[in-house]
Amino acid sequence: MSKTPPSATPASTPKGDRIAKVLARAGVASRRDAERMIEAGLVTVNGATITSPALNVTDKDKITVEGKPLRDPEPARLWLYHKPTGLVTTDRDEKGRSTVYDDLPEDMPRVMSVGRLDINSEGLLLLTNDGGIKRQLELPSTGWLRKYRVRINGRPQEDDFTPLRRGLVIDGEKFQPMTVSLDRQQGANAWLTISIREGKNREIRRAIEDIGFTVNRLMRVSYGPFQLGDLKPGMVEEVRRRVMRDQLGLEAEEQPEGPPKRPTRPQRKRPSTLAGRPGPAQPTSAPTGHGGAKPAGRSTGKPTGKTFDRSGGKPAGKSFDRAGGKPAGKPTGRPGAKPGTRPTGKPGQRPDSSRGGRPSPTRGGPKKPRS
């Protein structure tokens, strides 16, 4: 049996990720733009200039872009930007026109736009520092719905938009069906709401021109679940990371944002004389002597006049007569005894009338009459 020489063993898959993917994650550019930068000789790996994106790199490799070291990838972030008219959506403009990046706040990190809006269009433009999110949001296969408010010149009828609803082919390029609603006529212009699921260059303008009308204003009001709302032109608002993760189906970070802690209400203190609770017995003050006090066996939230053994629920020590505040001897434990009465001694013994209804002594039995 012949053995395969070591040199003929197929090479294992290189470790790491493609250089363009790493650059996109770091927020340098999209994968496609990163590949162009590599081909232009603007990227070096371990001191050597590369001209092909077919290279895998790891964390150990030293990468520079335009002479600057590549920063560690930051957590993915997303912003809503209200693009005004007169700005182009590009990093550099060959004609020297102002770009959307010239209009952004100085403290923002390096970002990329999700899709584009032409110079005469306005409205919602998504910005992100993550090339993977940019690609995910731009792909037609993801089906993100883009909604626009469109003003056209003329007096259209509902039937005029049938070709847009069915799908158009313009100059050999196929356009997917659009959702079109005729909102209102305003003088010589009409307002429409148009929704599309792909972002081809000047798609709405070209489609409207193909049916014989001209767009004189176009504003994007939403992109998927993200809404323009009341955001003023030129303003930027960051999307909460939790909202971004939920909407895009991203995995949670190592330290995800926890739910806000609900305020806890202070616990109400319970009476210290409740029976059946473990813990040391706490003496209570003597009763005030009100004859109409409730039976001491019930918990009313107020001192009951008795001290209880908290481990067993039985009276511990002397009890007090709530009506008089004096020691009343040993408790009889008679169920249903009325408050304010003194113990009656042995069960069934009649009270002594000479003592005004008070019970006679029980020690030694009844006294013999004198002769």
How would you characterize this protein structure?
This protein is of the alpha+beta class. Helices cover 12% and strands 20% of the residues. Among the domains are: 15-69, RNA-binding S4 domain (Structural Genomics Hypothetical 15.5 Kd Protein In mrcA-pckA Intergenic Region, Chain A, Roll); 74-143 and 229-250, Pseudouridine synthase I, catalytic domain, N-terminal subdomain (Alpha-Beta Plaits, 2-Layer Sandwich), CATH 3.30.70.580; 145-223, Alpha-Beta Plaits. It has six helices and 17 strands. The strands form four sheets. Strands 7, 8, 9, 10, 13, 14, 15, 16 and 17 form a nine-stranded mixed sheet that branches. The chain has a four-stranded antiparallel sheet with strand order 3-2-5-6, with no helix packed on it. Strand 2 and strand 3 form a beta hairpin. The radius of gyration is 43 Å and the shape is elongated. Residues 247-371 are annotated as: Disordered. It is an enzyme of class 5 (isomerase). Belongs to the pseudouridine synthase RsuA family.
Topology of helices and strands:
Elements lengths: L16 E2 H7 L5 H9 L3 E3 L2 E2 L6 E2 L5 E3 L2 E2 L8 E6 L28 E3 L7 E7 L2 H8 L7 E8 L8 H5 L1 E3 L2 E3 L3 E8 L2 E8 L6 H8 L3 E10 L2 E2 L8 E3 L2 H8 L123
Parallel strand pairs: 9-15
Antiparallel strand pairs: 1-4, 2-3, 2-5, 5-6, 7-9, 7-17, 8-9, 10-14, 10-15, 11-12, 13-14, 15-16
Helix pairs in contact: 1-2
EC number: 5.4.99.-
Catalytic activity: a uridine in RNA = a pseudouridine in RNA
Keywords: Isomerase, RNA-binding
Features:
371 residues, alpha+beta, Structural Genomics Hypothetical 15.5 Kd Protein In mrcA-pckA Intergenic Region, Chain A, Alpha-Beta Plaits, nine-stranded mixed sheet, four-stranded antiparallel sheet, 6 helices, disordered N terminus
